[in-house]
Amino acid sequence: MWTPVGGASGHVTPAGTSAFGAHDTVFGWASVTKLFTTYACLIAVEEGSVGMDDPIDGFPGVTLAHLLSHAAGIAAEQPVSAFPPGTKRLYSNAGIRLAGQHVERQTNIAFTDYVRSGVLEPLGLAGVQFEDPAAGASGPLDALLRFAQELLRPQLIAPVTLAWATQPWFPELEGVVPGFGLQRPCPWGLGFELKGAKWPHWTGSSNSAQTFGHFGQSGSLLAVDPIRQQAWCSLSPEPFGAWARNAWPDMIDKTG
């Protein structure tokens, strides 16, 4: 299995996990962080603290679902409207931060604490650092592998909730997958990027259309194929670049 120089990669199947490289070394996760933010939001939905139809203060017509699926029209890094909600898939770190702030207001719990108590600690990931909902987590490959196991066989949320979150939301929207160009359409779930019929893509050519996950600009990825019941994780000291566009799909296809 491919392993980035100085980094680590891993594979999860029903039979267990395998890890290669520096699997206990801490790396930044960048946008893979969004998956943990999403999971906390889904826990808040199941608890009844928030709903995906909740309006977002200061942004008329925008709901929590719009924010998590990058359909709110919020600019990439600033909490300002660039497009009307529901008209374009505009990838937005600012929108994910607004989602975290909404959960924080509705629960009266700091979002970082909510993620820690709701997601990290129950999974035995107390050593993971979580500082920003959009891109501020860091930890070792072993932690991502454990989370990947949760995504294959959910314990913290109901399987039906995860299936609901990993279906396409606002499926007709077009948009750009950073690093992979314009996609028409550009399916996205609630926080989870969906493979669908996207090409080029960072997952393998052998992956099903139901494959979901995220990658990060730090050279990180987590992909789950619920049809094949397999998951892949990778962390690298090298930022995302041309190397990843070839290495990641190749890594996944060779472990199919």
> How many β-strands, per DSSP?
13
Structural class: alpha+beta
Overall shape: it is globular
* First-to-last CA distance: 11 Å
- Main sheet strand line-up: 2-1-13-12-11-10
What is the helix content? 25-40%
Report on the biggest sheet. 6 strands, antiparallel
Give the mean pLDDT: 96
Q: Helical region count? A: 7
Strand content: 15-25%
| Uncertain ranges | none
Element order, helices and strands? Answer: EEEHEEHHHEEHHEEEEEEH
Supply Rg: 17 Å
Describe the structure.
The structure is a single chain. The protein is an alpha+beta fold and 256 residues long. The chain has helices at 33-47, 64-68, 93-107, 111-120, 141-152, 159-165, 242-253; strands at 8-13, 16-21, 27-28, 55-56, 59-63, 129-130, 137-139, 175-177, 181-183, 193-194, 212-216, 220-225, 230-235. The chain has a six-stranded antiparallel sheet with strand order 2-1-13-12-11-10, covered by helices on one side. It has a three-stranded antiparallel sheet with strand order 3-7-6. A hairpin with a 3-residue loop joins strand 11 and strand 12. Helix 1 packs parallel to helix 3 (93-107) and helix 1 (33-47) crosses helix 4. The chain is globular, with a radius of gyration of 17 Å. The protein starts with 7 loop residues before the first strand and ends with a helix. The model has no long low-confidence stretch (mean pLDDT 96).
